[in-house]
Amino acid sequence: MSKRRMLVIGAHSADFVWRAAGAVATHNAAGGEALVVALSYGERGESGELWKQPDQTEENVKRIRHDEASKAAAAVGAEFQAFDLGDYPLHVGPQEVDRLAELMRDFAPHVVLTHPEKDPFNPDHPAAHAAVSRARLLTSGAGVASGFRTAPPSEFLVFEPHQPELCDFTPTVYVDITAVFDQKLAAMTHMAAQQYLQEYYAQRADQRGNHARKVTGNSEIRQAEAFQRLLPNVVESL
Ligand SMILES: [Zn+2]
Description:
Largest sheet: 7 strands, mixed
Bound molecules: zinc ion
Radius of gyration: 17 Å
CATH class: Alpha Beta
Low-confidence stretches: none
CATH topology: Rossmann fold
């Protein structure tokens, strides 16, 4: 049986770390493989600590961010790839959407994770969602034989944004990340440019763990990550 493949696409190189690193680690621990794509490095808008250094340059920030994200991805067993399209603003043009669709046809993911459609605090996250959503449709076709190369439709979920209520994010899936939480912590530690988020997202994992315990009655769950399915989950029986 072929490995289950997960594709995580973020607007900025660190987005996957806060929101899906645990899901990536559990996926890989279960024998899957994961590819993380960053549409930009978040070099201008999400690299605060690095810009405090005198004589800092965009190229140097991008180099550091590439290194950090590669190490964070490795900490949860994933590959990291950067499109380097620039951030604040992130513009994903038709050619880049085609590039993303081509990557999806090659990788043929079983599950795709990205940002929610809406984020009133961030101009780039919705742009990433729109690009991923479009590329995914161009990859799978309309569910009938197509006159272009396709890959089977993937599951499609969005990961938890910073302020979920304001992004119309309602969790429909909790992933128990208790067993891999150390890996998530390690991944977060690599994102030195955004240290202020490490504690925040460790707390979020604890809170979602509490919610997952309530849903399941499983007292073993300590940490979880929340996701929202955009498409129905098809099962053989209930
Ligand atoms: Zn971001």
